[in-house]
Each structure stands twice: as structure tokens, then as C-alpha cells.
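Figure S7 source data.
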Amino acid sequence: MAKTNEHYDKLQAGYLFPEIAKRTRAFQAAHPDVKVMRLGIGDTTEPLSPSVIAGLHRGVEKLADVKTYTGYGAEQGNTELREALAQRYRGYGVTIEPDEVFVSDGAKPDSANIQSIFSAESVVAVQDPAYPVYVDSNVIAGRTGQWKDGRFEGLVYMPCTAANSFIPEPPKGKVDLIYLCSPNNPTGAVANREQLAAFVAYARKHRAVIIYDSAYAAYISDPVLPRSIFEIDGARECALEISSFSKEAGFTGVRLGWSVVPKTLACEGAEPGKVHRLWNRRQATMFNGASNVVQEGGLAVLSPEGQRESAAMVAYYMANARTIKQGLEAIGLTVYGGVNAPYVWMQTPGGMKSWDFFDKLLNEAHVVGTPGSGFGPGGEGFFRLSAFGHAEDIGAAVTSIQNNLKL
Ligand code: MLT
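C-alpha cells for the predicted D-malate complex:
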């Protein structure tokens, strides 16, 4: 008799973004003449840059010729791309070997899959609020109890509040896996060196592992802020990093990311090298490598011209972030983030519940955002607006909020 995985039954409603899309569709069906403005999911809108398009074409051309055709590639990724990514880390003053870089089809699958190489008994700590994949993947793996009073039993929530500028302290007790995301989705907060150093010290003391998501690193313009956890001394012994071309180069639909798993990374019961070996084993068993065409596109992103073009794309979205932040501040709303990150995190007016504000914003201003409570109990009373969109649409959305939202 087959049974389904009982842990799925613990998950709450639908995954956040499909739920938002469902509610938006229902509103649109009831108001067909209204133009809804979408600042919900952080999905890129601007076309791929010329050198990336040329790179993708090169990948296709190679497949058209028997002399350059390739079938399956290495599960860990194209050697040249792994070297180019290791080179990027050298630019941060960090030594990463090319064979410590695992190319993948994106940071979301890696964030969801990485937990599978750790013990089912691991105690997991997440920032609260957090990108839902960290929590849900561990719920599905059975590392939590039931959902009770707005949180999962057995999960350690690290509160991110205005009082700590949305960067938490390391946990008081002992945990095994710590998920950190900086620049943060959803709060837009960026951890500084001292804050990350506290987590590295904690992880080394407790033989814990930091799973560091740097998918938004390209949005950091302040040279003092770290772009990688490996900029912190000792991180190679206790951290791995997951990252992506999605937000840096518009690859949300193209799909390409990577994880760095240092061979020096150790944890309780695992000598240096073991975590690296296990991730290699996991990928070789369950993944057949990222698309060869797409990896050519990734190489193009990392070329000097590709980097200049990506910087222009990032600057475009960051101008949107400023439009949102300044536009909301002008009407007296309290907002955070949006400086070295493409997300603006606002306090809901009058302490409204996040989903109530979602309905209010949609009904009054015809703007879709993301309810903070969808990212965890600490997000209740907050709301996220995404800077990914055409500048004119973002401008229209902000104007509509200013003119139509009843405060
Ligand atoms: C978001 O809106 O949080 C992101 O776009 C989701 C993702 O990157 O998967």
C-alpha cells in the first residue's frame, strides 16, 4: 500500500507566490477593466543583455555541428564556467577552487536540495522572516513538528526586527544548520562583516553549518559590505554558499545557479571533505548538469562585457527600488531595505495584518505586493514590494499608491 509523505500535510496552504497569483487572478476576473500592477514576485522583466544573447547563440551553434556537439556534460558543470566562478571569488579576495563550485539550474533547487545531505535529526535555524524554500524543504524532510500558533514546532526562528535592523544574532542554544540570506529576501537588509563573523564563530563553536544564500549579492553597491560569506575568516570551515544568475543577469526563466561547497567544510561527525563529497554524490545521482546552452550564457555573464551589462541591469532595478522607497516615504509610510537590495520592506499602516493589507492595496491602488507573513511569523505586519519591473510600471504603481491608498 503506497502512502504519501506525511510531512507534506504540515505545509501551510499553497506556496506563497502561486497563492498570490491565484488571488490576483480572482481580482482581475472580477475587475476585467482594471490594470493590475505587479510588484509581488521578484521576477526580472528586462531582456537579456547583448553579450548573453551572443553566448546563448554560441551554445546553440555548437550543438549544430558534429565537431562541437555535446550530449551530457559533467553533473558539476562546465569546467570553464566553474573556473570563471572561482575567479569571481578571487575578486572578493577569497580562494575557492573550481572543483568546489557546483553549477546548477538555480539557487531555489539548490536551497531546497542541500538539506538532504545532512542528518534528518539536524536542528534548523532560519531568519524570521525568510525565503519560504528553506523552511518548507525542511518540513518536507521531516525536520520539524506540526504547524502550531503560526510556526513550525522544532524549528528555530531567529527574529529579524526593526530593532536589530533585520539581521539577527546567532541562536542562544545549539542548532545544526543555519540558513542566512544577504542581501535578504524579503527584508532587503544586508549583513555586515561583524554580523557574519558572529555567525561564523557560532558555527565553528557548535560544529554547525551555515547555508548562505547570496542570490542578490550583485545588488550590493556599498564596497564595505561582504558579497560572500567566504570573505569572513573561518567561513571555509563552516559554511557553504548558494547563488544564482537569476537576479544578476535576468536568468529567472533561463535557469542557472551554483553552490560553493568548500573541501575544508566540516561538521559534527564529518571530517573536512565529506560534505563536499556528499553534495558531489547527490548531484551526480540526481542531476544531469545544467543545460549546455545556458552554461554558455553564464560564461558570457562573467565576461568583462557581460559584467558591465549586468551592472547596468542591476542599476536599472535599483533605480526602481529608490522610486518605491522614496515614493512610500513621501506619504509617511515606514520602509526598510531597497538600498543594497531590490526589495523594499514596509510596515503596514496602522498595524494591519499583512494579508489584509494585500487586499487593501490591490483593491484601492490595484498594486500587488507580497504579504510579509508569507515569509514567516516575524513578517506579520509587514509587506514586501519588489523593484523588478519596467520603470514606467513601477512609477505608475507608486503614483497609484500615493493617490489611491486610503491611509
Ligand atoms: C521572490 O519573489 O522571493 C523570488 O523571486 C522567488 C525566487 O527567487 O524563487
